[in-house]
Amino acid sequence: MTSSRIVQDPFLQSVLLASAEARQRCMELIDLAKRNAVSSSQPLPNDIKLQLSQQQRLLNCDLASLRDASRESIFEVRMTKQSTSEARQEIDRLHLQLQNFYYEERHLRGEISACESYDHQYQQLPLIPIEEFLLEKPEHSHDDERSLMFARISHELAEREALEQQRQGLLKTKQSLIADNKKRKEDLASLDKDLETFIDAAKPIQKLFEKH
Known about the structure:
This protein has 5 helices and no strands.
């Protein structure tokens, strides 16, 4: 697998291309020097010197461009590492947040389950059957389950308050009758006492009538 297939970034591909071109020009320069190699005592022909000089200048230009591209690629790598680190931190933060949401969801599901299974006191109230309630209060026939239960409890409360008022009224009547009965008993006791006193006072008169 070639490096061009491994490296997909356009800028890095351009760096690889510049490196390949510089290498190729260097190989051409070496090949040119080998083909025209002579002894050290004999100077190179002027045309060969010119070609070598031109190839050297081109190679220097390629190397300068390659150095610039290398510095820029290093900067790009640093930037990529920084952005990767920031992205990793963001992923870690989101993962932690997701875990917190998961734990919160599990906690809320537990709370909901506990609420659904809780034996509420209102469920033990001796409410009248729904059918009987709807016959008395047909305006609640289209209520949902929650609203219907609230209406039934309110109805039961009103009924119990009315019964409590009746009980209080009957209690007051009972207390009044007890007080009246007590007063009459006291009046009868007083009357009996007066009657006994009258009888005792009339005994001498009765004895006087008996003598005659």
